[in-house]
Amino acid sequence: MARAPRTRDRNGDQAQGPGASGLRALRSARRSDAPAGPGYKWVALSNTTLGVLIATMDASIVIISLPAIFRGIGLDPLAPGNIGYLLWMILGYLLVSAVLVVVLGRLGDMYGRVRIYNLGFLVFACASIALSLDPFRTGAGALWLILWRIVQAFGGSMLTANSAAILTDAFPARQRGTALGINQITALAGQFLGLLAGGLLAAVDWRAVFWVSVPVSVAGTVWSYLSLRETATGRRGRIDWLGNITFAGGAGILLAGITYGIQPYGSSATGWGNPWVLAGLIGGGALLLLFCYVETRVAEPMFQLALFKVRAFAAGNLAALLTAIARGGLQFMLIIWLQGIWLPLHGYAFEDTPLWAGIFMLPLTLGFLIAGPLSGYLSDKFGARVFSTVGLVVVAGSFLGLLTLPVDFDYGLFAALLLLNGLGQGMFSSPNTSSIMGSVPPEYRGVASGMRSTFQNSGTALSIGVFFSLMISGLASSLPAALMSGLTAHGVPADAAGHAASLPPVSTLFATFLGNNPVEHLLSSGGTLAHLSAAQRATLTGHTFFPQLVSGPFHHGLTIVFSVAAGMALVSALASAMRGGPRSAYDNPAPGRPAATAEPRETARRRHDACS
């Protein structure tokens, strides 16, 4: 994108005289260099909302589509040796997003937030095209997809790391909560809309899952280059290479250790006893501690630890981290609950459950879309603390309500609880984001946006490790015996039943997660089903056998998961209630005037309250 003339101040006022060169006059006539008018903030909102929508949709669109994707490349995702491919297809995107957003936010502060954002759209578009053109099959095809998903996550991180900072620059404090609320809720809703879109597109063709991103990302690239412009002055400085290396290495190794921790190791259902996993957890943690030490010693640190001295920033990010963990646990557990148990019990074929699971979770997305912009607008007037705190209490209440439901629940009550959870998360997310971004100096908004995204993305990745481990451990204690007795009772030979029961519970768990019939998958490969009677085959591969078999162990694990999630929501509410108000001097006083005299006292007080 063309750079703004150096003689233009940060509000776009012309400072050059009549003797300016023809080249400079030509550049100033271009739309991207024109002063930001009153309508520019809405252009920035619409563009950044599109960016975070496509970035977050692609983080989840693959989850539902994995069976079709792996069938398309000729690879069984549930074979024990292929579990790693499956996990990295899901978590590789999240891991890169969690690790890189701070770095990219810092680069946005230094070299221009719009410039990094525009480049992110271009990288995302190129990666989407490469994903849809996978030329390989089996393991090579899976590696192609994983590597280009990582590149796509790199572009998506550029978008998410700078979108909130661009909006904070473009909008005045009295409207910032509304703008950030729309942007944030779109990002959260994109995670669930991706599940629905994945189910629809995978039924057409597995490549369509990646095709859908191509026209959107290409159009977004062109539009962002033509419409967005820098409205804040970049602060040049040196790149903190040691900080970048220790943070990326520490966070990457730690999250990779968590990823492999949910895979079986030896005779154990999970890999938390694996020496390599332990080494990753310890080594990653040590590198992050070293990173914190480095950041206190360098002149221009990547990660502004001093921002945590701002109470609103520290409390808001703590609440965001815990809420992201709870939300991630809810998302994945609901998919397993619906696809593996409830929908089959109500007559839905396993092949159709991914699509219908996305449809039946729409009340959660609807709650986001209703409460997010509304709470953002109201928080501009009445402050962020009340809305974010009450929203988290509502979230905790919805988790407790889900605990009371039986496995085969009444959908009306279930939908009401999902709507309540979505409303609560919408009430929290918009005001919390506005409070975090309004609490930091303008020159650090890019890195603050990246830090906020890091906590949110890390929470999602952590939730998979934490809650899947809890669920797998619960299944490992009772599922093998239940499978053994259930299969032998319906004519399956003892050796075949024992083989099926001895497979890692993670395979069975991911079978339900991906909308496959686990019993059919376990017995078809060895030809066992062919030696059974038609009635026995119909019973074992029907809609109700496996859901009824696993409902007891699953509900026990679900109780643990939702209890932990409710506790996290309550701790988040406490942290949110303890936030303080940000300094009004950070709300972009007019250029050339001191912050204390940039506006009347009453106006300054209203702007301060709007961000508190």
From TrEMBL:
Annotated segments matching region Disordered: 1-22, 581-612
Entry-linked Pfam families: MFS_1
Domain Major facilitator superfamily (MFS) profile: 44-519
Residue stretches of biased makeup (Basic and acidic residues): 1-12, 599-612
InterPro entries, per the entry: MFS (IPR011701), MFS_dom (IPR020846), MFS_trans_sf (IPR036259)
Topological category with respect to the lipid bilayer: Multi-pass membrane protein
Location within or outside the cell: Cell membrane
Membrane-spanning ranges: 50-73, 85-104, 116-133, 145-167, 179-202, 208-228, 240-263, 275-294, 315-343, 355-374, 386-405, 411-428, 461-483, 554-575
Principal location listed in the UniProt entry: membrane
Keywords: Antibiotic resistance, Cell membrane, Membrane, Transmembrane, Transmembrane helix, Transport
UniProt-recorded name of the protein: MFS transporter
Organism of origin: Streptomyces cynarae
